[in-house]
Recover the amino acids of this structure.
């Protein structure tokens, strides 16, 4: 285990790397790292904690040629690092998708990148961490969930306390292995484009901006849901969301931290049967003048 927290570290050079071959757990929380630096050469790291740094990308950003140090020139010559494939312009870096770059740190399963000021997930090149299972990105400036398509074994994604308003077409474009998705304290108003979350069991949506009951109804595209939180959203003031969610999600076992029992399901069904009766009565009333005229 390597544990160097709060040490003002800017770069990591582990020489010789063979001396660190058996390291499986690295904690460099609360430092000044802008990339994973020399950590990418550790072959057996399973858990990496980089909370409270300034991470911009897995690989160091490429500087103009005249300012490259001898060490950076050496990194650039290693094809598997991908360092030399990053263009000097931001546009080029983003257009060359990380899915086209070779995987790195193939033992890494757990990654903590909370509170790093991250805005752009694509620039991070997280798609290269192909065996990642748990990803923690809470407390950043993220507005879009993207650049994670190749994380095909990812089980838990934490993006609480970010700036996400909605999901674009590429957020969850492929059938996902996700079991848990944490989205609390964002700015979500709509819940579209979640149909690829075919295995999702736990979804946390507390303290967002959801106002319309029809948005909660969209969650029925995730029939595997067993636990859900929606407390702290404007829709919860109307006190009808619980009946709606229990009725539409037959496998739900926990809602806002409260277990769902058979009485809750019976009440939800009764609530909807009453609604249906009212709708039928209303339609009949509207038709009466017309049928009488006939």
């Amino acid at each position: 285990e390597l544990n160097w927290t709060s040490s003002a570290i800017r770069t990591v050079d582990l020489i010789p790397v063979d001396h660190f071959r058996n390291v499986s757990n690295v904690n460099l929380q609360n430092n000044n790292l802008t990339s994973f630096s020399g950590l990418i050469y550790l072959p057996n790291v399973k858990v990496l904690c980089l909370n409270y740094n300034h991470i911009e990308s897995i690989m160091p950003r490429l500087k103009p040629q005249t300012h490259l140090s001898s060490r950076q020139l050496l990194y650039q010559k290693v094809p598997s690092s991908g360092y030399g494939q990053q263009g000097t312009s931001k546009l080029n870096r983003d257009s060359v998708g990380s899915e086209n770059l070779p995987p790195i740190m193939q033992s890494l399963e757990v990654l903590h990148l909370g509170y790093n000021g991250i805005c752009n997930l694509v620039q991070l090149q997280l798609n290269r961490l192909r065996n990642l299972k748990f990803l923690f990105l809470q407390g950043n400036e993220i507005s879009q969930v993207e650049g994670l398509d190749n994380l095909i074994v990812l089980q838990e994604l934490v993006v609480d306390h970010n700036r996400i308003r909605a999901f674009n077409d590429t957020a969850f474009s492929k059938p996902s292995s996700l079991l848990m998705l944490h989205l609390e304290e964002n700015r979500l108003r709509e819940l579209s484009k979640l149909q690829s979350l075919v295995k999702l069991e736990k979804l946390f949506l507390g303290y967002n901006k959801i106002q319309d009951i029809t948005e909660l109804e969209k969650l029925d595209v995730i029939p595997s849901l067993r636990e859900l939180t929606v407390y702290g959203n404007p829709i919860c003031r109307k006190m009808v969301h619980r009946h709606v969610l229990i009725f539409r999600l037959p496998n739900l076992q926990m809602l806002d931290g409260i277990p769902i029992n058979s009485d809750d399901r019976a009440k939800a069904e009764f609530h909807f049967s009453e609604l249906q009766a009212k709708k039928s009565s209303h339609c009949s009333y509207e038709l009466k003048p017309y049928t009488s005229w006939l």
Remarks:
- Confidence is low (pLDDT under 50) at residues 77-96, 284-294.
- The first strand starts at residue 2 and ends at 3.
